[in-house]
Amino acid sequence: MSFTKLSIVATGLSLYLTSVVRAQGPGFVPLVNKRFNYTNLPYKVDTDVGLVRGDQLGYNICNSTTEGAASLCQTLIINSLDDFCLWAPSVPGKTVGEIEGEMIAWCSQPGHGTRIFPPGTITGVQLTKTPDYVQVVGFMDQTKVNMVKGDAGGEMDPHGADLRGNPMGGVVFSTAWGGNYKQVIEWHNFNGGDAFCLKACDPSGPRQAAMCQHIYDTQGCGFNAPSNARNGVFESCAGDSQDPPGTGPGTVPASSLCSTFASSDIFEGTVVVPLPGATGAPTTRSAKTTATPTPTTSSGGSSTSKTASGGAPTQSSGAGRVIIQGAGAFGSAFALMLML
Ligand SMILES: *[C@@H]1O[C@H](CO)[C@@H](O)[C@H](O)[C@H]1NC(C)=O
Ligand SMILES: *[C@@H]1O[C@H](CO)[C@@H](O)[C@H](O)[C@H]1NC(C)=O
């Protein structure tokens, strides 16, 4: 794209976003600008009665009374290999593209007031903690979390056409950066094609917006969150940061210090997996005991290990490829700008 065309598009985008904010009324605050503490979340983060998209489906105060099969919790947690959530539909029958604004949190552990993954949902996952982010990338039986069989999926992020987020009012918290829960400001989650990737960028990191870029919503996990994830393997690793999506050669970054586990131990059993390089006490979930990591070198890919990832979600695996149908106003507006 020429520089002139680029600046026309950029101007168009900023005019469009300005008009979105105006259309939401003078008090409107984009989701990505809202700040919360985990312990004093409002019942609903999204206070905007949407002219176009309606109200926030669920709620953000999630506890033992909301937990289980009827939960509509929209507060998502990503802590460790054994303790993370994904955004998925509350009801079956609709594709990610159709229902991205109403996704709810499904989690690997009880304790977050959410729905819980049925056993066998996650069939392989690699957690990677890098200087810029923590991510889980892997494979799943997506029908177990109300996704349509064969749906190539789409992207969730805290932006969206009307800046209310997808899901609207969805917020993300993590203990990955020490101490209590911290709100994750920039994140993206691609689910589809029986694969997933969820990246939470360090909320005090200088590259969080670039690393958790939200504009490549049709490109999937291989492009947005390259990893060494393999189906059938459950491992927790440290790693280098990828090139920000859309920049650099996009090779799979090296992962290291990997520890592998049995899914039955970490998801149904008692094993708590500390983050790679974590010091001090592990999590205090009472029913669980601390894991003795089994060091492996199996996925210690180098920066040239792109083809060694053996089935890591790639563009062709589909996660996040078919967002256009559900992108609504943003898709149309963006297409319009490209035609300028
Ligand atoms: C979160 O809690 C801290 C300490 O109580 C406080 O200083 C901060 O303002 C709170 N932030 C928000 C967004 O409520
Ligand atoms: C539990 O969550 C529900 C739904 O958000 C909320 O209405 C209720 O007040 C919460 N209970 C406590 C004790 O916080």
UniProtKB/TrEMBL annotation:
Biased composition (Low complexity): 282-314
The entry's keywords: Signal
Signal peptide feature range: 1-23
Region span, Disordered: 277-318
Domain of life: Eukaryota
Protein's name in the database: Uncharacterized protein
Record bears the keyword Signal: yes
